[in-house]
Amino acid sequence: MKIATFNINGVNKRLENLLAWLATAAPDIVCLQELKATDGQFPKGAIEAAGYSAVWRGQAAWNGVAILARDSEPVITRVELPGDPSDTQSRYIEAAVNGILIASLYAPNGNPQPGPKFDYKLAWHARLNLHAAELFETGLPVVLAGDYNVVPEPRDIYPTRSYDDNALVQPESRAELQRLLDQGWLDALRKVYPEEQLFTFWDYRRNRWQRDAGLRLDHVLLSRKLTRRLNGAGIDREVRGLGNASDHAPVWITLRD
């Protein structure tokens, strides 16, 4: 089984890119983030024509998450992160697909920091950690995939001082992600590539793609029941270099049956 996550940065604007990647990469399950489309604007017909069923939670102009499944119907289990009924941002969706619980998440960016956006980021991650702990304790096979908007450690960002004040690299942000990993979740990409410098995001500005000035923001975390099934992972970097590309590249893992 091949499971991928892809911050598409506008599902309708990048639809041609998305469909081409689906046809080439042929993932079984895809978590999408940053749909930047309302529920009614989601390109359901085009996705189905490509062979995928989908569940999604949209939002006008920004945010939005989805789960696609090939030859299967995702069964929604949750469309929001618990813990704050006042939070209306579309950043989390969860569904059962082929015996695995899949979560597609788009964590807050948190900039500028310090300030209310950074406070919201940390509070959101704390809520994610609480919910993830409950999921982990069930013993079920669970995948938490998406754009976490956290650079886990210094080797996950190109050599620079320009991000020193950015919310993505702050000690508080990294600590929240580490608390999640300390529950027992496996960072699949890092497990497969323990030593390499890995990037999944290249900002559009300052020729960062051309300079390979990237960051690792997109992560696939596995519960204990899935760790022994992990047999591959990768980043489809070439997708970032296409015309009209998202500023993220797809990240994927493969699981043994």
What can you tell me about this protein's structure?
The chain is of the alpha+beta class and 257 residues long. It has one domain: Deoxyribonuclease I, Chain A. It is 23% helix and 25% strand. The chain contains six helices and twelve strands. The chain has helices spanning 15-25, 44-49, 116-137, 171-182, 188-192, 224-227, and strands at 2-7, 29-33, 52-57, 65-70, 75-78, 92-97, 100-106, 142-147, 186-187, 218-222, 230-235, 251-255. A six-stranded mixed β-sheet has the order 3-4-2-1-12-11. A six-stranded mixed β-sheet has the order 5-6-7-8-10-9. Helix 3 links the parallel strand 7 and strand 8 (142-147). Helix 3 (116-137) packs parallel to helix 4 (171-182). The longest helix has 22 residues, at 116-137. The model has no long low-confidence stretch (mean pLDDT 98).
The top-level CATH class is: Alpha Beta
SSE string, helices as H and strands as E: EHEHEEEEEHEHEHEHEE
Taken as a percent bin, the fraction of beta residues is 15-25%
Number of domains: 1
Largest sheet, in brief, is: 6 strands, mixed
Overall radius of gyration: 17 Å
Spatial sequence of strands, sheet with the most strands: 3-4-2-1-12-11
Helix content: 10-25%
Q: Please tell me the overall pLDDT.
A: 98
What's the CATH H-level homologous superfamily?
Endonuclease/exonuclease/phosphatase
Q: Could you name the CATH topology?
A: Deoxyribonuclease I, Chain A
Number of helices: 6
